[in-house]
Design brief:
Length: 62
C-alpha cells in the first residue's frame, strides 16, 4: 500500500460510504460533523457520483 496520511484514509472512508448507499446524515455523524450540511459540501464529488446513478436505478425499475 502506498504511503497514506490519516487524512487520506478518512477521505476514502467518507467518499466510500455515500457510494455504498449510506445516507449523508449518517456519514456526517460517523465523521463527527456537528452540522450534517458540511459533509456534502466537503465530499460533493462522491455524492455527485452517487446521484448520477440514480437515473439508471429509476430507469431499470420502469
Amino acid at each position: 500500500m502506498p504511503h497514506a496520511r490519516l487524512h487520506d484514509l478518512l477521505h476514502v472512508y467518507a467518499t466510500t460510504l455515500p457510494l455504498a448507499g449510506v445516507p449523508a446524515h449518517v456519514v456526517a455523524e460517523r465523521l463527527g460533523h456537528a452540522d450534517p450540511a458540511i459533509t456534502p459540501q466537503v465530499y460533493a464529488h462522491a455524492l455527485g457520483r452517487q446521484a448520477a446513478g440514480t437515473a439508471e436505478v429509476f430507469a431499470a425499475d420502469v
